[in-house]
Amino acid sequence: MPSISRRTFVAAPADVVWALAGDFSEWHPQLRIYTNGPEASADLVVTVVARDDEAMTLSYHMPDPPFPIKDHRATILVEHAAHACSYVTWSAEFSADPELLQQLEDSLGDDVFAQALDRLATAAQDSFGAKQVAAASAK
User: Fold this and answer.
1) Interval 82-118: pLDDT, tens
2) Number of domains in the chain
3) Cα(91)–Cα(76) distance, rounded to whole angstroms?
4) Model pTM?
5) Of 34, 38, 47, 92, whose CB is crowded by the most CB atoms within 10 A?
6) 71 and 3 Cβ atoms separated by less than 8 Å
7) What are phi and psi of 94, to 5 degrees?
8) 113 CB-side CA count, 13 A
9) Are 88 and 76 in contact (CB under 8 A)?
10) CATH number for the domain including 19?
11) CA–CA separation, 120 vs 2, rounded Å?
12) In this structure, are residues 50 and 76 in contact, taking their beta carbons and an 8 Å threshold?
């Protein structure tokens, strides 16, 4: 089964990143999660199939993907890297026509995953920075 994966470094603790990772609306302008029905209109809808807060993993399925793929399952993993730093890996497995794999690598991997991970990193870093400033101001 083909897969696509992207990883990014985030200058924020894993718990800060994880707090944002499950809320796509905070960092991905096109994804929304259906839990008990639509909570917002969206270009893309995902259904969470597994979430492990301790392991900091979130897996989801896209019922109606905008790409020529089937049997889609993606996972977001947040890992501790060092003090106040983390890594985020976003990967997906799916079925697709082998002739389209390079195009999918570019469109799904670079245009979706990499750009969204950059947005997640920025949102987490901004959130962590704001907490640091607030803590310093309170002293």
Assistant:
1) 889 999 999 999 999 999 999 999 888 888 888 889 9
2) 1
3) 7
4) 0.84
5) 92
6) no
7) -170, 170
8) 22
9) yes
10) 3.30.530.20
11) 25
12) no
The vertex-114 CA angle with 43 and 68, nearest 5°, equals 50
CA atoms of 36 and 85, how far apart (whole Å): 33
Reading the block at residue 134, the tokens are 């607030």
What letter represents residue 76's amino acid?
I
Element (H, E) at 125: helix 115-138
What is the identity of the amino acid at 114? A
Q: What is the pLDDT of residue 37?
A: 46
pLDDT over 90 at 36, yes or no: no
> What residue type is assigned to position 10 of the chain?
V
Q: What residues form DSSP beta bridges with 61?
A: 47
For residue 75, which amino acid is it? T
List all residues 6 or more positions away from 41 whose beta carbon is below 8 Å from its beta carbon: 32
The Cα 57–Cα 22 span in angstroms is: 9
* DSSP code of residue 138: H
d(CA 11, CA 41): 31
Q: Give the number of other CB atoms < 10 A from CB of residue 62.
A: 18
Phi, psi of 89 (to 5 degrees): -120, 130
